[in-house]
Write a structure and sequence with these properties.
Radius of gyration: 21 Å
Shape: elongated
Strand content: 25-35%
Number of helices: 7
Oligomer: single chain
Low-confidence stretches: 1-18, 20-54
Largest sheet: 6 strands, antiparallel
Length: 293
């Protein structure tokens, strides 16, 4: 499966603290591990001094749900975090503070900016105003799989959100990350195919093995969630979350799941088949194909 244009690649080339790290092969998707090799592939070399102005560089920050923020040892549950892949840079908006922070992986800089200079962009993105002025707060440190820094006298800690593991439903997916809900809302399944699936008389069960850390799953599972909503009780669809080390999960080993996402269809209790590469783009058609029409 070719790597899609996805959420941010990473602060690190391979790390557990990764916003849905990418990789084209199943082996690559299984092998994301904790390292601290900073990304050095940015096409834009940032000056070591504070930004004078944001200009057109810092536009189009996309919200990510991969991290949890702590301030002075307390969880900041309302914090939102955005990523801009061109620089790359992270924009952290703490709920417990009115000071947005810009984290720059290439130089490990932490910059603060006025909240008044954070503007809404198209499609739910955020932009920094052209005249935004940044104040350097210092540099962040890497402690294992966590990012630590100090700004305005407060201690910040950014850590990876624990992955969803085990059997969950579509509601659990939406609660874990808004991307499942927004992706489902934007997908339009083929009406005729959905109508045929609703008429299915056999006992049909689709189980989707996924990783909440996997960019392919973030792209394709919302489509299945939308199909799930539309087919009703005619097709039972559930989701089984796996850790990064897929082989450590006994259920995955028993089912011979070697990559994520993997969708297995059962008809009347027996395995009928699995999604192939093309089925993920239009999962309702993949279901119909496996059901024989």
């Amino acid at each position: 499966m070719t790597a899609p244009r996805s959420k941010p690649t990473s602060w690190y080339r391979t790390a557990s603290l990764v916003p849905r790290s990418s990789g084209a092969s199943s082996r690559g998707r299984r092998s994301a591990r904790s390292t601290v090799a900073l990304v050095v592939g940015s096409t834009l070399v940032l000056a070591s001094a504070s930004f004078a102005q944001a200009g057109s560089t810092l536009k189009g920050f996309e919200q990510v749900d991969d991290y949890l923020l702590e301030i002075d040892g307390k969880a900041d549950k309302g914090a939102t975090i955005y990523f801009q892949r061109r620089v790359p840079a992270y924009l952290v908006l703490p709920a417990a503070s009115n000071t947005p922070l810009l984290l720059i992986p290439r130089s490990r800089q932490v910059q603060s900016v006025s909240l008044m200079k954070v503007q809404n962009g198209p499609g739910g993105t955020l932009d920094l105003a052209d005249d935004a002025v940044f104040a350097r707060q210092g540099e962040f440190e890497i402690a294992g799989t966590e990012i630590l820094w100090t700004a305005e006298g407060k201690q910040y800690r950014l850590r990876e959100r624990p992955p969803l593991v085990g059997l969950v439903d579509s509601g659990d997916l939406k609660e874990y990350s808004r991307s499942y809900a927004t992706g489902a809302a934007s997908y339009e399944p083929a009406d005729a195919t959905i109508a045929k699936l609703r008429d299915e008389k056999r006992k049909v069960h689709l189980r989707v093995y996924f990783g909440s850390w996997c960019p392919f799953c973030q792209r394709y599972l919302p489509k299945i969630v939308k199909v799930d909503e539309q087919v009703g009780d005619a097709v039972q669809i559930d989701y089984y979350g796996l850790p990064r080390d897929i082989n450590s999960d006994e259920v995955a080993r028993q089912m011979k799941v070697q990559s994520v996402p993997t969708a297995v269809l059962f008809v009347d209790g027996k395995e009928k088949g699995r999604f192939d590469r093309d089925d993920w783009e239009n999962p309702e058609r993949g279901l119909a194909r496996l059901l024989g029409g």
